[in-house]
Amino acid sequence: MLISNCFSKTFVISEFFPFQAKYISQCIDEIKQELKQDNIAVKANAVCKLTYLQMLGYDISWAAFNIIEVMSASKFTFKRIGYLAASQCFHEGTDVIMLTTNQIRKDLSSPSQYDTGVALTGLSCFVTPDLARDLANDIMTLMSHTKPYIRKKAVLIMYKVFLKYPESLRPAFPRLKEKLEDPDPGVQSAAVNVICELARRNPKNYLSLAPLFFKLMTSSTNNWVLIKIIKLFGALTPLEPRLGKKLIEPLTNLIHSTSAMSLLYECVNTVIAVLISLSSGMPNHSASIQLCVQKLRILIEDSDQNLKYLGLLAMSKILKTHPKSVQSHKDLILQCLDDKDESIRLRALDLLYGMVSKKNLMEIVKKLMTHVDKAEGTTYRDELLTKIIDICSQSNYQYITNFEWYISILVELTRLEGTRHGHLIAAQMLDVAIRVKAIRKFAVSQMSALLDSAHLVASNTQRNGICEVLYAAAWICGEFSEHLQEPQQTLEAMLRPKATTLPGHIQAVYVQNVVKLYASILQQREQAAEHEAAQAATQLLVDRLPQFVQSADLEVQERASCVLQLVKYIQKLQAKDVPVAEEVSALFAGELNPVAPKAQKKVPIPEGLDLDAWINEPPSDSESEDEAPKAIFHDDEQKPTRHRQPEADEEELARRREARKQEQANNPFYIKSSPSPQKRYQDTPGVEHIPVVQIDLSVPLKVPGMPASDQYVKLEQERRHQQRLEKKRKKQRKEKQREGRRRRHSSLHTESDEDIAPAQQVDIITEEMPENALPSDEDDKDPNDPYRALDIDLDKPLADSEKLPVQKHRSAETLQFPDREEVPAVEKKSKKLKKKEKKHREKGREKARKKGKEKGDDLDFWLSTTPPPAAAPGPAPSPDEPEADAVVAAPKEECEEAKREEPENNEDDEEQEVEQKPSKHKKKKHKKEKEEKSKDKKKSRRKKPPSEAVAEPVQNGALEEEPLPPMSSYCLLAENSYIKMTYDVQGSLQKDSQVTVSIILENLSSSFLKNMELNVLDSLNTKMVRPEGASVHDGVPVPFQLPPGVSNEAQFVFTVQSIVMAQKLKGTLSFIAKNDEGSTHEKLDFKLHFSCTSYLITTPCYSDAFAKLLESGDLSVSSIRVDGITMSFQNLLAKICFHHHFSVVERVDSCASMYSRSIQGHHVCLLVKKGENSVSVDGKCSDPTLLGNLLDEMKVTLAQC
Amino acid sequence: MIMPEEIQQQIVRETFHLVLKRDDNICNFLEGGSLIGGSDYKLIYRHYATLYFVFCVDSSESELGILDLIQVFVETLDKCFENVCELDLIFHMDKVHYILQEVVMGGMVLETNMNEIVAQIEAQNRLEKSEGGLSAAPARAVSAVKNINLPEIPRNINIGDLNIKVPNLSQFV
After folding, report:
1. Are strands B51-57 and A2-8 parallel, antiparallel or unpaired?
2. How far from A974 is each of A57, A633, A981, A1001, CA to CA, in Å?
3. Which residue of B has its CA nearest to A2?
4. Domains assigned to chain B
5. A310 and B172 in contact by Cβ < 8 A?
6. Among partner residues B36, B52, B152, which is closest to A7 by beta-carbon distance?
7. Which residues of chain A are within 8 Å of residue B161 when distances are taken between CB atoms?
8. Nearest Cα to A1165, choosing from A1183, A1148, A1139?
9. What is the distance between the alpha carbons of residues A866 and A873, in angstroms, rounded to a whole number?
10. Measured between CA atoms, how close is A112 to chain B, in angstroms?
11. Looking at the predicted structure, is the pLDDT value of residue A82 above 90?
């Protein structure tokens, strides 16, 4: 994918001409005038101007509706302008975008290929999930259009559709695959493009296409397609190493044969990817590596900067697995460091990072240091600085053999003017000084020199500036003050008045460490019995500390005050000649151990601890306000105090260490970074009797302000030379003492590396990890990744339910509603059918499984054959024909489907609940039946296209929070001592002139009721549907018997001719009541009332369709008003929805629009408004009589509220 | 991805400044600006006289391929406008869009064959002509906009220096 812009060398006009804004606003006014005109040409012209203004940065979304008007113009010229404007300013938040659906559909099926093309292009820029869902099927059809121009656009836009509507991927994929072999190269390339884009995100799903792509790769001559395919293979090889083996040969051939640099480059890249995936023990591929490196060298040596850049980029990929092959080109890469192009220099730096070894580290860093001096831009210099530190510190200072050298490099880096990375340097200093015990002495001497050199202090004091290193320097000098040679001098340096100009956090560290220094001076002096000198030191502190006490920084002030009081107390004690040194240094006793950066994260959560649960009840708002500042204060207080155990004496510490060692030894998760765990916790003196370094470095080059690192390089070389000699001698003596003892990291070292022993014994103290640390931190994918939704298995055959939603007439979609009116017989039949279907499905599933296996075998077979290039690329997997398997449902799919249905089912249940509540008084059997039905309902829903889930935004008000009063649509028909009849009338959409009457028959007596028969007196308009051959006078038998106390429901179908008026039919239920005494023939008369409402069917309606309906002007108007209503508006709506079969289209405050349809297709629109105590209903309907009657009925309902 | 106009402008400005300060003899790739997409994205540009053509692409595109594509695009412009210059682009911005849309659709490369692109453009132009009198309309539209700016400030515009900004084509992702 690409974003593209293009613009000229010049500035935005508005930057030059600030007064332009006035003209633009004038122009926009003019455009607004033009948009109001009826002439489409003028409108289009105005929209065209708007597109220009949009590019200048003006918002034109206000004209969205006009843009749609222009889009729907009949002439191509205008249409194109409209779509252009739409593609520039429409996005998912544009509300009118849903109005475009039909227009776009029309254009897509236009006979002119350019209308279609323009619509596709436009749609590709503003497709939304809704549009994608509604149009997916249309676009899929276009994929097989006769014109390649349309085909290629349709193929390409499918990617956008997949992104917005992932369900479409599986149904559309077979056709997409077909297009890979389209005769038109443009279509083919588009298909390759889309599949590559898909595969890049979820490569594993596309492995099965490998043979097909392989065929394309060996047969295609289109470089674009080749590049795409080769890139795709690069993504696939890590998943299937055998694929890589197969690829090597054709790719190598391409590398040798192609003249196109872009293709060559991509081939090399993919070969590298293959080699990486094969990296474990494939020695015979060294030829390929050599070839790649060779070709890359040619690229890098090319005068074209682009090739140079890309060559370096690819080189860095090889570096990861085959560092040796790259290291031989060090000269070339160092040369690139001198390039005038910054991007190239940065790339070269990246490469250097991976190229260092113990041998060449000093040399490389030296080179980099000279670049640091030369570099002009601060950004590049900072980049260099961070790279130097990265290179040196990588994998636990693996390559550093001489830490004195590293410290002096760090000190040299502090001389950089205006760097932003003072903090980084400081962190390194601290890290090295803490973790490399042997270097502390040297580090302390360097740091004290740093503290002495005032020029740093004088320079910039901005945050992160270089003065940050003083933080480290002060801390190191304080913490390891026992190594200081002239502590007095350092103490004075830290107490200079200039120190108060430093940033607060540094001053704070100064104060703290001044005391540490003081403590060690005190000890020295007291041991030497120089009491006066000790007192002098105290006096110095008493004199100088007040300057910190006056600091504006709270932290500094507080620490200084504490320290000052402490020192004054000591002074008193000293005056009495009490020895204090022991106690003062006890304040700072103990050793700090470094903690691993991830330690905190790895602490396992103890069982039974719920981190989300409140420990205390959450405080109320007012309380938390009071508490907040307190908490902050608390924080402040805690931060600086370091947690130490001053009481712990040496013995205690040793004991603890021992215990910890034990624990760590037993802990499998403990990460041992040093291979010699015995050494790790040696007591400090242990360092001294390691007989490693005999060379005299005890006279460190500590002349401040002099780049000392160079000397170290020299010294190091000498040292290594000597070492080698020594080694020879040792060998001669055949001593078994092995050098290996000094190795810290045995992995990855080349042999020559191993020979170089570090100058200092660097026991990099293992970072501490918590007990039971979790083994690894799993890096989960971002759950919000939009491409995740496209992680779909494409090899499974298509399920029935997965067809793309096809545009149907609304009525077809609402078939689900009248379920419950189905005549029982029909129901049974359908059940049988379903059973059959099920069986069939199961069979299909097996087939699918087999097929899947076969397919896997195909791939295996293809991969296992020894590479037969171009000629015989193995059998491509037979393209599965999903159409043939349409009925087949892979089991997983069903699960998914079911999951997707779930929320819907819930809604169902809610609806059901509403219905079931009133029926509680009815007996169990009835309930059962209902449940069954609801199941059926669910099933029938499942069959619907998934779009339905979204297409039902309006849930009859039942979804809202407020609990609804129980409602029942069943009303009493007739009752006597034997039986009670309640009924409900429902329209059925299947047949436009039929309604179904459900009658619940409840046996109230203790008799057994049988031979029930229902008969009605037909009118001209309304007739009961009787079994074939029956006359109008025959009744319809009820298909069940009723034992005492049982109720059941029977359904009867009636045909109606005109539905605009309510009807009444007289009828009789005859039955035989049988009890112990005998049986009697009984009759019950009733009047069936067909209200107009019963002809309505709840039909959802989109607000845009609704608006169109209202605008159409074919509807007649009528209204009613009912006073004295206290019910809440929501319940009111629910009531109307329930009793009158309406659905809410839109609801704003106390106003709602509602919609329903009659079985004969009359639209009924309502606008319900609630006043204070009244409700007014304005109705619009295609039939005025129907509307009048409906409103009258509604009035009755509402009057009951 | 369509973004608010201010962000679009900001991206254009940032990209512009990034590209502008680069010499001709350094490479044509720029790694991710802060506003555009992050590290997966690269700016790839070509410089023609006073014009920069900048594409922002992610790692699924071949860098050298995109450079070729820019070349194809510019050559197509050249054919369609007959010796294209900045003024053609600024006065027929809509046409430039239509041409670009034949090369890149919805952020994906649609066609790389120049002859095919030119053929489609010409067919569409013929269709537009056949629809008659309207062909004048778009031209008028641009000139109308142009007239807003130009007459008021004729002295300041030095066509030689080309104080023209060819705005960004719509943002595709």
Report:
1. antiparallel
2. 73, 79, 5, 10
3. B57
4. 1-61 (3.30.450.60), 62-132 (3.30.450.60)
5. no
6. B52
7. 10
8. A1183
9. 10
10. 10
11. yes
pLDDT of residue A791: 74
pLDDT at position A3 over 50: no
Mean pLDDT value of segment A1058-1085: 84
Query: Using CB atoms and an 8 Å cut-off, which of residues 128-157 of chain B contact chain A?
Result: 128, 131, 133-135, 137-138, 140-142, 144-145, 148-149, 152-153, 156
Dist. CA A421–CA A747, nearest whole Å: 31
Q: Is residue A353 part of a domain?
A: no
Any A CB within 8 A of B55 CB:
yes
Q: When comparing pLDDT for A1009 and A774, which is higher?
A: A1009
Bridge partners of residue A1053, in order along the sequence: A996
Q: How far apart, in whole angstroms, are the C-alpha atoms of residue A594 and residue A604?
A: 20
Summarize pLDDT for A984-1038 with one digit per residue, the tens. 887 766 667 788 888 888 888 888 888 888 888 888 888 888 877 777 777 888 8
Based on the domain organization, do A1072 and A1101 belong to the same domain?
no
Looking at A1045, A1065, A1090, the residue that finishes a domain is A1090
Contact A2 B116 (CB under 8 A): no
Range of the domain at A489: 422-587
Mean pLDDT of A737-741: 44
A977 shares its domain with A1048: yes
How far, in whole angstroms, is CA A388 from its chain's centroid?
34
Interface probe with A: pick from B27, B69, B70, B92, most Cβ of A within 10 Å: B27
Q: What average pLDDT does the structure give for chain A?
A: 73
Q: Specify the 3-state DSSP secondary structure of A701.
A: coil
pTM for the full model? Answer: 0.54
Q: Of B57, B111, B129, which to mutate for an interface test with A (greatest number of A Cβ within 10 Å)?
A: B111
Asked if A1136 and A1126 count as a contact pair (C-beta separation under 8 A), the reply is no
Interchain contact B173–A (C-beta under 8 A): yes
Among chain B residues, the shortest Cα distance to A4 is held by B55
How many domains is chain A partitioned into structurally? Answer: 3
Same domain? A576 vs A450: yes
Assess if residue A499 is contained within a domain: yes
Statement to judge: residues A460 and A513 lie in one domain: yes
* Residue A75 DSSP class: S
User: What ipTM, to 2 d.p.?
Assistant: 0.82
The CATH number assigned to the domain holding A1013 equals 2.60.40.1230
* Host H or E run for residue A987: strand A979-987
Taking 80 as the threshold, does the pLDDT of residue A336 lie above it? Answer: yes
Q: Is the domain of A491 the same as that of A512?
A: yes
Each residue's pLDDT tens digit, A946-989 = 444 333 434 444 344 445 555 667 788 888 888 888 888 877 66
CB contact under 8 A, B170 and A125: yes
Tens digits of per-residue pLDDT, A775-823?
Answer: 544 444 455 566 677 777 776 666 666 666 665 554 444 344 444 444 4
On whether the CB atoms of residues A210 and A236 are closer than 8 A, the answer is yes
Confidence check: pLDDT of A149 > 90:
yes
How many A/B residue pairs have CB atoms within 8 Å?
A: 278
Cβ contact (<8 Å) for B105 and A78? Answer: no
CA distance A699 to A694: 13
Residue A824: per-residue pLDDT: 45
